[in-house]
Amino acid sequence: MCLAVPVRIVRRVGDLAEVDAGGVRKEVSLLLVPEAAVGDYVLLHAGYAIQLVDEAGARETLELMRQLVEAEEPDAD
Amino acid sequence: MDDTQALGRRLAAAVSRHDRRMQLMEVCGTHTVAIFRAGIRTLLPPGVRLLSGPGCPVCVTAAGEVERAMHLARAPGVLLAVFGDMLRVPGRRESLAEARAEGAGVRVVYSPRDALELARRHPKLRVVFWGVGFETTAPGVAAAVLEARATGVDNFLVYCAHKLVPPALEALLATGEVRVDGFILPGHVSTVLGTTPYAFLAERHGVPAVVAGFEPTDLLLALELLLRLVERGEAKVENAYPRAVRREGNPAARAVMDRVFRPVDARWRGLGEIPGSGLALREEFAAHDAARQFALPEFPDAEPRGCRCGEVLRGAVLPPECPLFDRRCTPVSPVGPCMVSSEGSCAAYHRYGRRAG
Ligand code: SF4
Question: Which of B111, B129, B256 should we substitute to test contact with A (largest number of A Cβ atoms within 10 Å)?
């Protein structure tokens, strides 16, 4: 039930957004993420966007992974 | 440059090399399922035991709360709107699905907004949304209450059974029943909460914790970070899901939640009453509060006979240790809620456990 999926905002009218959820269009409330704009990815949970998906965060994740495996296998690469 | 897949493989290898004995708990039921699905249990080193915690909202809903919801659904002129997973939770005598077959007013919704829409379309009915779920879900329900009030949908009510994760972790550690060397923290609860509310785990209990996402590589990253923290004896809270979790969480969502709800003591299946671990509607939203608008009787939290769901939720036993598991209790005819919910540990072990228990 704590499932949330990233969706892209296609259109915004007031606090409502039309999002693209893997090819399916859905109406989503942006009341909890008021700063979200068209083109942004948000996490959708039970009809509400609950957070912006952060691209810098995606890079950070990769960077963390890289650091960990490199610390683990100093001779690799 | 490595791609995510290649990094994932190397992380998997790293994870499987740890040789320290330890018990880790994945708090969130969605993680339990994602970990099974990604096959991560099969690559854990033999010394690492993974316990499921109290993070399945359907499962931790107290038996008495299930009966009160049933009572509401049977009240004349009421339509109880529920998340689909609640439908088949076994009650004292029957489930909501069975009550519905006998004429009780029950409707499955995907979102509290759908329940609000139902209330708009059925002005003669009182539509009661059964608010179940953690900090991920409660802000949306609060937003629906605000919208109901702003647009004058007076026949939209909430029966609030929401629960809060940090007080449950505190209660779990306070009992000392189960040793937890590290926590895998729920990604989407943390999207709202941020990481600060978990600081007590490290500071007061000396237990490290890592917030994890739900993709296989997210989980491997979190595990590897956590395994290292435990091995080094470093009590810290780290975030392995920065795509969705910021240190400060989502303050706008928390503000909406705080505007409508206040913390109250709540009863959990398996954990009993925990101070400040639940939510209730604030006085000014009394008109939308099913607990005030209906005379809701108290029901005992009686567990189904023989069901060890409570212990499963505390990490005290694993599902296959329940004598009913896969015998009398299966997803087709569940005895307890841990076998009903798609995120329940018993259901996850039933589905994936044979090859990876
Ligand atoms: S297997 Fe069934 S009876 Fe046993 S603990 Fe799980 S839900 Fe309860």
Answer: B111
B313 lines ligand 1 (CB under 6 A): no
How many angstroms separate the CA of residue A30 from the nearest CA in chain B? 10
**Full-model pTM:** 0.95
Name the 3-class secondary structure at B315. coil
Predicted complex ipTM: 0.92
Q: Is A6 exposed, middle or buried (0-12, 13-18, 19+ CB in 10 A)?
A: middle
* Multiple choice CATH, B62-164+252-293, 3.50.50.60, 3.40.1050.10, 1.10.3720.10, 3.40.50.11740: 3.40.50.11740
Task: Assign B257 to helix, strand or coil.
Answer: helix
Domains of chain A and any CATH numbers: 5-72 (2.30.30.140)
DSSP string across B4-20: HHHHHHHHHHHHHT---
How confident is the prediction along chain A (77 residues), in pLDDT tens digits per residue? 678 999 999 999 999 999 998 889 999 999 999 999 999 999 999 999 999 998 888 888 888 888 888 876 554 44
Q: What is the mean pLDDT of residues B259-284?
A: 97
**For atom 3 of ligand 1, which residue has the closest CA?**
B307
Just give the CATH number of B3-58+165-239.
3.40.50.11750
Residue of B nearest to A76 (CA): B10
